[in-house]
């Protein structure tokens, strides 16, 4: 495929229980580094983890509040509209059908990427998208052997290389490390604390938004 001038479409999935400044900051930087449209895509029933504390409706309300005032990061709720578990491979196949040859980039934090061999049909992900790995504090550099083998010939250093083809490459995106996790934020909220500068300001405008985490 010739080099395209169409911006890549990057997908950043997660439980967002709740969305925090770590998510937003790395998604923002990824969109700058890749010159891509980035869609935040909340997962309904993550196949590989405990159910979220907040409902799908509540998580979407928080995401909407968080994304106000900018247009670089958008929201895509398709996985919540699907019944049953939301497998990333199914979502990417659907997006590929919609987007034609447009480069697709699946953004994954380094911790989640290390667990990729546990994902449903994980090897096929490279057939439909590139993967962008976002650095995350506390995650050691080593990835499992099985994963190393699959990515060995896929690595590219420069974002421009992702525009030559629609899928199949791996890029490591050195985003500013922010040691923020939703787990820690939920702990603070349960304790009655107010983690104001770890969360987007909009989440404090409506006290109902953080109610799912309060005791
Ligand atoms: P939890 O603590 O509940 O596991 P989380 O903070 O890791 O949540 P998720 O919604 O599970 O958030 O993460 C969605 C995606 O965002 C994953 O790919 C994860 O690796 C990435 N991510 C989350 N926080 C950060 C961060 N601070 N830096 C880089 N990537 C992050």
Mean pLDDT: 93
Which hetero ligands occur in this complex? Answer: adenosine-5'-triphosphate
Identify low-pLDDT runs: none
SSE order, one letter for each helix or strand: EHEHEHHEHHEHEEH
Gross morphology: globular
The total of beta strands comes to: 7
Distance between the termini: 54 Å
**Second-tier CATH architecture:** 3-Layer(aba) Sandwich
Structure overview:
The chain is an alpha/beta fold. The chain has one domain: HUPs (Rossmann fold). Helix content is 31%, strand content 15%. The protein has a seven-stranded parallel β-sheet, sandwiched between helices.
Summarize the structure.
The protein is an alpha/beta fold. It is 31% helix and 15% strand. The protein has one domain: HUPs (Rossmann fold, 3-Layer(aba) Sandwich).
What is this structure's SSE topology?
Layout: E1 9-14, H1 21-34, E2 37-42, H2 56-67, E3 73-75, H3 78-81, H4 88-99, E4 104-109, H5 110-114, H6 125-128, E5 130-134, H7 145-151, E6 155-156, E7 170-173, H8 182-190
Parallel strand pairs: 1-2, 1-4, 2-3, 4-5, 5-7, 6-7
Adenosine-5'-triphosphate binds at residues 14-17, 22-23, 26, 108-109, 111-112, 134, 136, 178, 180-183.
Question: Which tags fit this structure?
Answer:
215 residues, alpha/beta, globular, binds adenosine-5'-triphosphate, 31% helix, 7-stranded parallel beta sheet, Rossmann fold, 7 strands, 15% strand
